[in-house]
Amino acid sequence: MSALQGLDRSTSELVLIVDDVPDNLSVLHDALDESGYTVLVATGGEAALQRATQALPDIVLLDAMMPGMDGFEVAKRLKAQPQTAHIPIIFMTGLTETEHLVAALEAGGVDYVTKPIKPKEVLARMGVHMQGARMARQTRNALDAFGYASITVRAQDGKLMWQTPLARELLTQYFGSASHTPPEVADWLLRHLPLAQRQVEPPRLAIERGARRLTFRLHQQTGDDDDWLIVMREASDGAVIEAMSLSFKLTAREAEVLYWVVKGKINRDIADIVGASPATVKKHMERIFAKLGVETRTAAAGMALSRIRLLNPQFEL
Questions:
Q1: Where does the record place the HTH luxR-type domain (predicted)?
Q2: Please, what is the Cα angle at 308 between 303 and 310, to 5 degrees?
Q3: Do 163 and 83 meet the contact criterion of CB atoms below 8 Å apart?
Q4: 36: alpha, beta or left, given left = phi > 0 and alpha = psi -120 to 50?
């Protein structure tokens, strides 16, 4: 574990200060440290990106004008990465012309302070923006503690703004990438946004990969932005298939076929899923009927579903 990953985040909030002038860093570091913040510093753009990605600070104080990569480019890159896009950025600038201040906000800044830096002003501005970030973090931490993965998506363009490590892992497994919002999820959010805006929970989205299922639930809007927190949860029905096999004395393949019958699939669909021919699936069905003592798919599905719900009350079709 790196020193950055080992930082204690339980008792104080983490601030990243980015400035190429040592005196500016020193003044701000001392003021923030005395106010109870944990402080990281970077003197250039590349170092800032590295520290922000590793430590995920609660807020970034970013110098606009630096040699090499300037603050505007740093902000754009942070906002382009799902793991850092949610972090509030306050620009520190000696440029007071309107076009420079507009550029700071367009690059992703939520606010700016002008140089020479006044620590009290910086602390006051930070307080405003930290409150929303603090509430969002507490919500995400609570969800993580109960085993839920979560992502934040901007509704207007479907951009993936933030994700937990578990969410990143699941998105990669189900969709092959965690760098953007899956089209199915973006479409689902956009389609049901009117319900969510009326505080009516929309129907959940379910993505199936064999016996694994990933569900998406719209949790809440975050802050005043157009960002929505979506909770993901994976359910693997491999245990259900194994339990059916034991309960009804079925082979593993017969139990898998019966599982998909319960899910409403026809023989041709089941054949595609399990990698067999429709004729083979039909033979499996004949043996399932004999073992369950039934004559129809409906009866077999009803008996299996009753047994499944005894074993797993949260099972969803």
A1: 243-308
A2: 100
A3: yes
A4: left
CB neighbours of 18 closer than 8 A, spacing ≥ 6? 41, 42, 43, 44, 45, 47, 48, 60, 61, 62, 63, 66, 71, 74
What are phi and psi for residue 44, nearest 5 degrees? -155, 170
Residues 6+ apart with CB under 8 A from 50: 42
In angstroms, rounded to a whole number, what is the distance separating the alpha carbons of residues 279 and 273? 14
CA distance 265 to 276: 14
Main-chain dihedrals φ then ψ at residue 30, nearest 5 degrees: -65, -45
Classified as helix, coil or strand, 128 is helix
Helix or strand (DSSP H, E) at 227: strand 227-236
Give the structural domain span for 286: 238-311
The CB-side HSE value for 289 (13 A sphere, CA atoms) comes to: 12
Q: Which two tokens stand for residue 54?
A: 């590793």
Start-to-end CA span in the chain (Å): 42
Instruction: Supply 23's token pair.
Output: 């005196």
Residue 6 gets the label, from left (phi > 0), alpha (psi -120 to 50) or beta, of: alpha
Where does a domain end: 141, 163, 197? 141
pLDDT tens-place string over residues 125-144: 998 888 777 776 676 666 66
Percent pLDDT > 70 in the chain is 88
pTM: 0.53
Say how many residues make up the chain: 317
